[in-house]
Write a structure and sequence with these properties.
Layout (H helix, E strand, L loop, with lengths): L11 H17 L7 E4 L12 H10 L6 E6 H6 L7 H15 L4 E6 L1 E2 L10 E2 L7 H10 L8 E3 L8 H14 L3
């Protein structure tokens, strides 16, 4: 799993090709094995990868797009302005990935809430249910078709002992909650 990086002041198309070439070099070192996962970003500054189309272009530029998947970071998606709170918004987001890749490429979730405003493009992680995504959003995310059976990694802040256990317990409750 890796972040796609930034355009570093170059044209975005050239930067996408540069990242794709780097992925091609990495994939050439291993003939088979696990897919490389590219994580979506909040899209701040010159960051690449806030949109499914740009992630798909990176995968295509590597010459082996079938070997590239996506790690969906929930806070980054919300920060980039994607609706990850409502079931309808999640369906639109996943449909966008399917259109861009020709398949659903999401293989892993980075589960974290957003401490910033949705769409502000600020990467600020928060405890599950305590930010812009909230309990309702995580209930929808963790139960969405196409996401509910994926492995998830918590990327929440650790501010005091037990935060990881509390975030995991809350995520589990929300994934299995009724209503």
């Amino acid at each position: 799993m890796l972040h796609p990086g930034s355009s570093l002041g170059t044209e975005r198309d050239a930067a996408v090709k540069r990242v794709g070439q780097a992925l091609a070099e990495a994939l050439a070192q291993v003939s088979s094995g696990p897919a490389l996962l590219v994580e979506n970003t909040a899209g701040g500054g010159s960051q690449l990868g806030a949109e499914s189309g740009e992630l798909a272009a990176i995968a295509a530029a590597c010459g082996a797009p079938e070997r590239v998947g996506v790690c969906l970071d929930t806070a980054h998606a919300c920060a980039a302005g994607h609706d990850v709170v409502t079931p309808a918004g999640l369906r639109r987001l996943l449909a966008g990935f399917r259109r861009a890749f020709g398949r659903l490429p999401i293989r892993l979730l980075h589960a974290n809430d957003l401490r910033a405003e949705p769409g502000a493009r600020h990467d600020r992680h928060e405890h599950i249910g305590r930010g812009a995504i909230g309990d309702d959003g995580f209930r929808a995310l963790l139960r969405a078709a196409g996401l509910r059976r994926l492995p998830a990694i918590l990327e929440t802040p650790v501010e005091k002992d037990g935060d990881d256990r509390r975030n995991l317990a809350r995520a589990r409750r929300l994934a299995h909650a009724t209503g």
